[in-house]
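Just curious. Invent one:
>
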Amino acid sequence: MPAHPALGTPTVRAEGTQKVTGAARYAADHTPPGCAYAWPVPATVPRGRVTAVDTTAALDMPGVLDVLTPDNAPRLGPWEDPTLQVLQDHAVPHRGWYVALAIADTPEVARAAAEAVRIDYAVEPHDAVLYEDHPGAYTPEEVNGGYPAEREQGDPDAALAAAPVRIDCAYTVPPLHNHPMEPHAATAVWENGGDRLRVHDSSQGAGTVRTTLSALFGVPEDHVEVMSEHVGGGFGCKGTPRPHVVLAAMAARHTARPVTLALPRRHMAATVGHRAPTLHRLALGARRDGTLTALTHAVTTHTSRVREFVEQAAVPARVMYAVPDLRTSHRVVALDVPTPSWMRAPGETPGMYALESAMDELADALGMDPVELRIRNEPAVEPDSGRPFSSRHLVECLREGAARFGWEAGRTPRRDGPLLHGVGVAAATYPVWIGASTARARAHPDGGYLVELNATDLGTGARTVLAQVAADALGVPLASVTVAIGHTGLPAAPLAGGSAGTASWGWAVHEACTDLAARLARHPGPLPPEGLSAVADTTEAAKKKPPYARHAFGAHFADVQVDTVTGEVRVRRLLGVYAAGRILNPTTARSQFIGGMVMGLGMALTEHSAVDPAYGDFAQSDLAAYHVPSHADVPAIEAHWIDERDEHLTPMGGKGIGEIGIVGVAAAIGNAVCHATGHRLRELPLTPDRVLAVLGPER
């Protein structure tokens, strides 16, 4: 077959036209005939029990079908995630926990009915405030990702005491929220007399939703069909099923009608997970030439009493720099708060903010260039495991980024009237995750090719890149390949998360298409009417533990101006350079890198949530109070990458790119603000009040 270059070429999104014309249908767009609508009722107390539910006023409204409560809701089977055991008892573990569900003919009536429900509570004492020496803090067995909570090499305390130069600093990252463009939504219908369940869900993994609903509702897994064809973002909060899909299925079973439930944005902070706040304490010791001799990174965070989730924020320190004496640890406090969960680059995002800020503090103490300090401490092998890196080009990212950015020219802080200017740098890392997947490829007699697997496209361009992988393996034009994803009736595939989608799915697609190409080459004459197909399963290959430490790396550079009158920080320029394996589609890759950098900018300057100690929920629960960056906030952003060839990955040679773009951005901006002002701020975000407080009267 002739070669048709597909991988590595800029390609527009296959579903782009559907999205811009409104033809793409999302979970809440699927409203079958007779569809009803549901609206949840959140608890208004921080902790306690429901003692009475008055649904009289709600049920009297025209168009209201019923109100589900803990007393009449369908019973659910056991499941590993207790956040999904909604309306099963009268306990209220935190404010915002759902205690009732109104169902009506229209969404407007459902909302009005929910507001008319009256709940009485027996309020119990609660604790919702995280602080470092909280008496309830404990060391968990492990943290998110399956990492051990504590790791120690050598004697870091003795090494710190002996270090000629050392710093000891604390950093704080507040709770953060994912806020994808599309709120969580689901449409559920029971068919075949209530024997089969069909669901459209806004999810990062339809297969996981199917398995969960099967267990909760006690039906065979092959009687549950879940579709997530188009998903409007997730950033982790759609990584596992959330209460909305359980409630939609529950309401549909109760009413024997299709039901659509779309969460209002104000409910999401308490319902779909958040990035837990993290309190960081770091100590670094070094020789006078900048060589690190000791590093300790201790993290304290919160979880809920419903389910343990521990942000692995100290883990990046285990892989970043050559340090002979190293200790990393996590402690967690179970509070009466909503359950935290994944948010873009969990662990790496807050952990690298603290570590890379501390590295800059050390550079200042040494009088050393921050770029050179990082290069000076480049490890030969992964410090935590001793394994060689499959590839590690952080030094190249730092040097190329410095050259592109004009680092040397910007190293002298300057003042322009009331405006202070400074520059900052930070490194980035994210692990390579690859999961088992299956895929099916079929050649049709008309010359077309169909690739099928239950992958999910969150808006990242997964459909497009998978088509490129297929076309490349088949040696055919990209236009001849169609990709079907987002349906549990397709070959099983892992959820979209951990920047593992393209690597996991693409490997199976590559294998299926390579096999199909060989079958086609051997096939004599025209194809049969049903065509020829091939199926691949990478389970055995994917579960082999590689002898290499596999990570993506990068470097971020920021140019900021600080207004000494208003305290406002404006980022004038952001630049990132990445070593993320082979870039399979420069168009969609650049979009992912820039998207991550924008989220990092929001984390640094505007995004902030706080747990209200009196009520136990988040004070910032909508986009009016929780400030994500708008167009006017986003400066010129450049995303570049080096040509990294790594032979120890999948056949495509790519690493995940969806998350590394956010890692380190907040530190680069914070370091630039310190460079501009001469003052170190150690709590995010860098809001005007905090800036003015450190500038003081000298401004």
User: Anything to note?
Assistant: The CA atoms of residues 19 and 25 lie 8 Å apart. The first strand starts at residue 36 and ends at 42. The chain has three domains: 31-125+181-233+238-271, 142-176+275-432+550-698, 434-542. The chain has a mean pLDDT of 97.
